Amino acid sequence: SLFDGPPEKAELTREQGLQYYRVMQTIRRMELKADQLYKQKIIRGFCHLYDGQEACAAGIEAAITPTDHLITAYRAHGYTFTRGVSIKEIMAELTGRKGGVAKGKGGSMHMYAPHFYGGNGIVGAQVPLGAGIALACQYQGNNQVCVTLYGDGAANQGQLFESFNMAALWKLPCIFICENNKYGMGTSVERASASTDYYKRGDFIPGIRVDGMDVLCVREATKFAAEHCRSGKGPIIMELQTYRYHGHSMSDPGVSYRTRDEIQEVRSKSDPISMLKDRMLDNNMASVEELKEIDISIRKEVEEATQFSTSDPEPPLEDLCNHIFHNNPPLEVRGTHPWAALKSVS
Where's the Dehydrogenase E1 component domain (predicted)? Predict the structure, then answer.
């Protein structure tokens, strides 16, 4: 074989356990709050929730450094948080307010932070961008990697295979990660993909399939993948088998193409938060009271962030044309000057 693989065993310290628990629980509470605000019509537009998939974000982040790079699709709230953006800035972005991470102009699908190149709205389009970020890492020789995420729905996009080819040819330090949550929009993987072995679909790129509901599995696999990339062996593919509890987006109730029983079964048997919690309690690494205290503090934090996100003002109209360019527009382009009369192109 080309390489061995991640270790068979993983170590978890009490501190790490509490840290991962806090991260996953924060994402969960934040997403449930977003669900609520959307239903109250306070959040508008697109909104794709991440609850159920928390172990992916927490595990990946535990295995890379903050100076490594990460780009994902539009189910991005979790990664925005793990990349260092505050709950307050995320919630305010969701409600389109000035205090949001993108000044209220990006919304759910377009949040950015240092070394985080956003949620991206076009299916699969972030994958070539991720390969480009990895090319920059290689070019600058800084020993950094780019984690490039996509879903099972995007896995059939042509641009993925073009990116795989270039990444393999140039040995780019890119970890391509398919977050396989079993359904693209309302379509099960079996109905959309002739091969659902997403980790094998890099063809000439080695791949590993990972339990995406277990934060430790994700962490160890990502550590292994990052090491593979940093040692100059080129790209690697990971398929994280995970699950989303909500529908694809808010307009999808998520129960027409799968049963409520199926969702319930995943929740009761392999919920990422419950599994970590049980593991810690069974090994006397934490007490029930302690975890309950963490829950209460997270709930309070999310509540305060929500207060802010509903009271913070929306960006003023005169801000509409700002931030199109980093500084002054380099050339005369129709529509880039604030309030310029739009001339017809014909």
Answer: 24-317
Distance CA 238, CA 144 (A): 18
Q: How much of the chain, in percent, has pLDDT values that exceed 70?
A: 93
Q: What share of the chain in percent tops pLDDT 90?
A: 90
Amino acid making up residue 96: G
pLDDT for res 341: 62
In terms of residue numbers, what domain contains 249? 14-315
What is residue 44's predicted lDDT score, i.e. its pLDDT?
A: 96
**Residue 165 within any structural domain of the chain:** yes
Q: Is the pLDDT of residue 247 over 60?
A: yes
HEC sequence for the chain? CCCCCCCCCCCCCHHHHHHHHHHHHHHHHHHHHHHHHHHCCCCCCCCCCCCCCHHHHHHHHHHCCCCCEEECCCCCHHHHHHCCCCHHHHHHHHCCCCCCCCCCCCCCCCCCECCECCCCCCCCCHHHHHHHHHHHHHHHCCCCCEEEEEECCHHHCHHHHHHHHHHHHHCCCEEEEEEECCEECCEEHHHHCCCCCHHHCCCCCCEEEEECCCHHHHHHHHHHHHHHHHCCCCCEEEEEECCCCCCCCCCCCCCCCCCHHHHHHHHHHHCHHHHHHHHHHHCCCCCHHHHHHHHHHHHHHHHHHHHHHHHCCCCCHHHCCCCCCCCCCCCCCCCCCCCCCCCCCC
**Residue at 6 is within a domain:** no
pLDDT of res. 326: 72
Q: How confident is residue 321, by pLDDT bands cut at 50, 70 and 90?
A: confident
> 240 with 331, same domain?
no
Quick one: 242 and 340 in the same domain? no
Q: Are residues 200 and 326 in the same domain?
A: no
pLDDT for the residue numbered 339: 62
pLDDT of residue 13: 97
Report how far residue 58's alpha carbon sits from residue 291's, in angstroms, rounded to the nearest whole number: 17
Global model pTM greater than 0.70: yes
Round to whole Å and give the CA distance between 179 and 3: 22
Domain count, the chain: 2
User: Is 121 within the bounds of a domain?
Assistant: yes
